[in-house]
Design brief:
The chain is of the alpha+beta class. The protein is built from four helices and eight strands.
Length: 170
């Protein structure tokens, strides 16, 4: 796999944003991919005409892409049709790190944020592979889908162009 491109999106003033807490930054690609492979929920952030929208989805990660399934219609799919650029977030947490002073509590977590371009999959073989990737992410061995089954579901591939990650307490 090519070297990871750590991507910080530009700020509105044209400067490049950097991670403030360098002591919590994860730069190892294997660790980032492990978090992506272990997480159970993915949140996809979309925007249309300046209106933000975040939606949790079942997902799978592989080949530098996020895959998810959806009904072919609805707000999420409508927004992706207008603007395929999106942001993805996954995280894992094992709870707070307690302190005698409640104001000093912190959270034990690992998170990954990715950016990319979404594309609706139309090829039968590609859709089957994506759906089986989803099933395997959640512990199923996979399934031989019929074309009729694949016609009823929409599968989306987000090709990633940037990834950052951080952790605390791990």
């Amino acid at each position: 796999m090519p070297p990871l491109k750590v991507f910080y999106p530009p700020l509105f003033n044209g400067e490049i944003d950097t991670m403030r807490r360098k002591d919590r930054e994860i730069t190892d690609r294997d660790t980032m991919e492990s978090i992506l492979n272990d997480a159970e929920v993915c949140r996809i952030a979309l925007a249309d005409s300046g209106e933000p929208y975040v939606v949790p989805v079942c997902f799978a990660y592989g080949e530098n892409a996020i895959y998810f399934h959806s009904a072919p219609e609805g707000k999420k799919m409508e927004m992706l049709g207008k603007n395929p650029r999106c942001c993805v977030e996954v995280d894992q947490s094992s709870g707070p790190i307690r302190n005698d002073n409640p104001c000093a509590w912190e959270m034990r977590y690992q998170s990954v944020i990715c950016t990319g371009i979404a594309r609706i999959l139309t090829d039968y073989e590609e859709k089957c592979a994506a759906m089986n990737r989803l099933l395997q992410h959640y512990g199923s061995p996979g399934h031989a889908f019929t074309e009729k089954e694949m016609e009823r579901v929409c599968l989306v591939k987000i090709s990633l162009d940037g990834m950052t990650a951080k952790q605390h307490g791990y």
